[in-house]
Amino acid sequence: MNEIIREVYNGTIVAVKKIIPIDPTVGAPQLIKPPLKVTYGVMIGFTGNIKGELILQSSAEFFSAVGEKMFGMPISGEMLESFSGELGNMIAGSLSTYLAEQELTTDITHPTLLQGDATLSGFKRALLVEVNYPDDQVLSVYLLLNQ
């Protein structure tokens, strides 16, 4: 199990750096216990050798800034919600591809946007990796493990 967690951590870093065109500083992984509170983020489920959810949490402003960097124009409203889900999809898909290269079979579900004060529980443990960007922006990446 620890080897799988290490591969997920490494794959997450590779995926985030590959997809988000801003140079980050990546924090050390931390194990956290439920519940998890999310005010804005995207959740994508994983099935296969790894069962759980990937959650990308930050501010709506951060997701908007990433969208602007990627597409050259500010995004907001429904376009921001759609982009946030798609960004989650791109990162989860890239992570799934990385894991396949490590001979771990996974599949991902469609993204679910989390807004407001969502409290997530029902998972056994979670791996948190904080990815720091300029201007004190932080993307918190959680992998909720159900095994």
Question: Top keywords for this entry?
Answer:
single chain, 147 residues, alpha+beta, eight-stranded antiparallel β-sheet, 3 helices, 37% strand
Describe the structure.
- With 147 residues, this protein is α+β, with helices and mostly antiparallel strands.
- The protein contains three helices and eight strands; from the N terminus they run H-E-E-E-E-H-H-E-E-E-E.
- Strands 1, 2, 3, 4, 5, 6, 7 and 8 form an eight-stranded antiparallel beta sheet that branches.
- Helix 1 packs across helix 3 (77-101) and helix 2 (60-71) packs across helix 3 (77-101).
- The mean pLDDT is 92.
Question: Which helices and strands appear, and what pairs or packs with what?
Answer:
Layout lengths: L1 H18 L5 E2 L3 E3 L3 E13 L3 E6 L2 H12 L5 H25 L4 E3 L3 E9 L4 E9 L3 E9 L2
Antiparallel strand pairs: 1-7, 2-7, 3-4, 3-5, 3-6, 4-8, 7-8
